[in-house]
Amino acid sequence: MSDTCFLCKGNLTDVYASYMSEEDGRYIIIKNVPGHKCRQCGEVSYSLGTVRKIEEIIEKIDGFATEIAIVNYNDYIEKNESKLKRTLKKAASSVAVL
Predict the structure, then answer these.
(1) Exposed/middle/buried for residue 12 (C-beta within 10 Å: 0-12, 13-18, 19+)
(2) Does residue 82 contact residue 42 with C-beta atoms inside 8 Å?
């Protein structure tokens, strides 16, 4: 990854950010995602490997009937997918928090 922002060419710094997505009326928030934030414009970017993991998480959540899912990226990466599945299945309300 480049050390400069693709938008403004500012310097990047490593961060852990929250990634948010809306898929078919459902909101997915993935916390603690490793990324790079521009010190000049604030744009957050992710490596290709991280984007692939985000896509995997969204795909796993896609089969569950919840309106809002909050997932910790590190839990998923640590092969804790079974915790993700159990929590989403047990979600009594429209919100699942991991």
Answers:
(1) buried
(2) no
Residue located via tokens 């997505």: 21
pLDDT in tens, 28-46: 999 999 999 999 999 999 9
In which residue ranges of the chain is pLDDT below 50? 92-94, 96, 98
Contact of 72 with 98, CB cutoff 8 Å? yes
Say how far residue 83 (Cα) sits from the centre of its chain. Answer: 16
CA 50 distance to own-chain centroid: 9
The identity of residue 84, as a single letter, is: L
Q: Measuring CA to CA, which residue among 6, 4, 7, 35 is closest to residue 19? A: 35
Phi, psi for residue 91 in degrees, rounded to 5: -60, 110
Residue 19, both tokens: 């990634």
DSSP-derived 3-state class of residue 2: coil
Report helix, strand or coil for 7. Answer: coil
